[in-house]
Specification:
Shape: globular
Number of helices: 0
Largest sheet: 4 strands, antiparallel
Bound molecules: FE2/S2 (inorganic) cluster
CATH topology: Rieske Iron-sulfur Protein
Number of strands: 10
CATH superfamily: Rieske [2Fe-2S] iron-sulphur domain
Strand order of the largest sheet: 2-3-4-8
Low-confidence stretches: none
Distance between the termini: 5 Å
Structural class: mainly beta
Order of helices and strands: EEEEEEEEEE
Strand content: over 45%
Number of domains: 1
C-alpha cells in the first residue's frame, strides 16, 4: 500500500469534499467533524460519479410512525438514481452487499494522503 497526496487539509471544507485523481482513480475526499474519509467516485449501480452527489443525513432506526433524522453530513446520494452510501465506509444504506470502495486516509503535515494498493 502506498500513500498518495490528495489535498491540503485547508482545501477540504468541513462538511464537504474534493474530488481528486490518484493513480488513475477518481476519489472523493470528505471531511466530517474534522476527520477525513475517501471513497471511490463511482456508483456500483450504473457508474455515475457518486461523489458529485449531495451530502446529507438519513432517518435512524425508530419506532413505527416516528421519523428520527440523524447522521447529518455522513451520507452521499448518487446524482443519477439516488442510491445512498455511508461516506465513512462506502457501504450502501440498503444492502451490506452493495458498496463503493473506501480508502484509508492519513494526515501528515497539513496534507491529506490516501492509501492505495494492497496492505
Ligand atoms: S448510477 Fe448511482 S444510483 Fe444509479
Amino acid at each position: 500500500m502506498a500513500l498518495y497526496e490528495a489535498a491540503a487539509e485547508a482545501d477540504v471544507p468541513e462538511g464537504g469534499r474534493v474530488i481528486v485523481t490518484l493513480e488513475g482513480r477518481s476519489i472523493g475526499v470528505y471531511r466530517i467533524d474534522g476527520e477525513y474519509y475517501a471513497i471511490h467516485n463511482y456508483c456500483p449501480h450504473e457508474g455515475a460519479e457518486l461523489c458529485k452527489g449531495h451530502i446529507h443525513g438519513t432517518t435512524l432506526p425508530s419506532n413505527v410512525a416516528e421519523f428520527e433524522y440523524g447522521r447529518e453530513g455522513q451520507i452521499v446520494r448518487c446524482p443519477w438514481h439516488g442510491w445512498e452510501f455511508d461516506i465513512k465506509s462506502g457501504r450502501s444504506l440498503f444492502s451490506d452487499k452493495v458498496r463503493t470502495r473506501s480508502y484509508k486516509v492519513e494526515v501528515l503535515g497539513g496534507m491529506v494522503y490516501v492509501a492505495i494498493g494492497k496492505d
